[in-house]
Amino acid sequence: MTEPRIQQQGDHWVISGDLIFDTVPGLLEQSHALMGKGCQCQADLAGVDEMDSAGLGLLLEWLRDARTSGGDIHFRNIPENIMSMARVCGLEPILKQA
Prior knowledge:
CATH class: Alpha Beta
Number of strands: 4
Strand order of the largest sheet: 1-2-3-4
Number of domains: 1
CATH architecture: 2-Layer Sandwich
CATH topology: Transcription Regulator spoIIAA
Shape: globular
Structural class: alpha/beta
Oligomer: single chain
């Protein structure tokens, strides 16, 4: 298991490591400090090694948090297995809009 990390580069987040059930709570906590009111962010997931349904839940939580505070977050390089899962659940349009 690779510990996940968020590296902030201006309005860009570079996400790396594993976004899985065991690691998502810590990463969510870390992200709260980065997501300010009206945050307009772009999260690049190219460095993600492994991602499961908890990781998909994390993306949806980030969307909700950003939009609730008057901002938005856009995702790049979402792993294909997660996009397939999102497609089956009817969430692909939400992630593609983001």
